């Protein structure tokens, strides 16, 4: 049960409660999704300028895992190039599948490094990331700015 203690660590609780990553952004690309099995909801706002994430935030309700994961996502992508965002997404996918990943690219998100061992929480963890992936794909298709 060490993974459970880690999952609800002070770091996770702190991010879940941190309001610096929350809120609406005018004129941003926005997407949302819901985890049908538990009711978690995440709406991401991403503003891109000249191929770089100028600002990002989220609004949402749900469990501590979904909210902390979304907050760390925002912290990780702010100021990053779209190429860096793509690399982060790839590493999150690897981590969530229990494969080797680049810890440096994921920063504080490594607190969830054992999420693949907790299938009932994986959907919560991945909710914001699947929304970001849709935003990234949309930017690739339609462009940004």
Description:
The protein has 145 residues and is α+β, with helices and mostly antiparallel strands. It is built from six helices and three strands. It has helices spanning 2-7, 10-17, 64-77, 82-96, 103-106, 119-142; strands at residues 29-34, 41-49, 52-61. The mean pLDDT is 91.
Proportion in helices: 40-55%
Give the uncertain stretches in residue-range form.
Answer: none
What does the main sheet amount to?
3 strands, antiparallel
The sequence of SSEs as H and E is HHEEEHHHH
Which terms summarize this structure?
about 140 residues; alpha+beta; Sufe protein. Chain: A; three-stranded antiparallel sheet; 6 helices; about 50% helix
Write the layout of secondary structure elements.
Blueprint: H1 2-7, H2 10-17, E1 29-34, E2 41-49, E3 52-61, H3 64-77, H4 82-96, H5 103-106, H6 119-142
Antiparallel strand pairs: 1-2, 2-3
Helix pairs in contact: 2-3, 3-6, 4-6
What is the gist of this entry?
The protein is of the alpha+beta class and 145 residues long.
